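name: query_chain
kind: protein
chains: 1
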Amino acid sequence: MGSGRPSWPRSPRWAFGFFKQEKAMPELVLDIFNEDAFSLSQLILGLEKVPYLPTTLGDMGLFEAVYLVGTDQAVIERQDSVLSLVQTSERGAPVQRADAPSSRRDIRSFSCPRLHETDEVTAAELFRMRAMGVAAGSQTLEAEVQTRLLRRRRNIEYTWENMRLGALQGVVLDKDASVIRDWYQEWAIAKPAEINFALGTEATDVRKKCSDVRRAMIRAAKGAFVANTTVHALAGDGFYDALINHPQVRRTYEGWSAAADLRGGAAFESFSYAGITFHNYRGSDDATSVAVASEKAHFFPMGAVEVFKVVFAPGEKFAHLGQQAVPLYPVVKRDEDDEKLSLDLRSYPLFMCLKPEVLQRAKAG
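structure:
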């Protein structure tokens, strides 16, 4: 298992599905496929040049990236240290054995799932582009390949965001709502009960509610919280609105909001109160595919030790054997009839929560 920025793999072109060129092929098409623009390294570099699709959780940098080498299995050791008082004894008295082990070690292996997007560019489409005077030869085809790979990349990054959101709640779900990983079950940990913030009641001490959340998270962390660890919450629209409009919170929020208005403001904003930064999470435009339920909030730490990781596994091609994983694997393959290019984009991520007991959740009430 390695970490840090991976180097892009370089390998012979045959490994990525290019067929042997036929002598009768027109010179223009020969030039296109002789160019280096469609090698794996160039395709990856091309994707790197595309502006990154912004995602709230991705931009936070919560998940430490780990890039596997030569395996698709992430081996994780979880160790919970246990502190206990020591009974005094007289010098020379027999030494008593410890009543319980000082730590619990749990070593587990997890496979990394695959995300797979496909598309194709046909020769007929390219002929139409040339007839319209777009560009010639390889420039047209290369631009079209990159455009379509970008569309596929956006879908994969969108899925990454959904997986991050799941890991922050302790359960990572697939597109069909089936469970990919329930990190509470994986580590045999009881899911903390939902907290009622009772924001519909004027007398509610919201500051104490926030303090209770922070204390519960710090105690459950068992040393994972360090000096620069902060507590954050992803809040649905209903929860966030009820919070900022609560009588105890409103004055603090109005002072913050006035300053925010001078900065331009935003529909989906963040607001810090009582040691917690609340983010009105936007998610997907349909507010259901990738979203936080309107009346709910999910609390998580930033800057904590060994809580969130994303593990990337290597690809499935011969060229990937022994290579360090990269987040995205683009492949371009020409069909046997020389009529189309098949575009293939894959990713092998596992978004992990190693300490789900730290997570807390609440309802507006």
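note: The longest helix spans residues 137-169.
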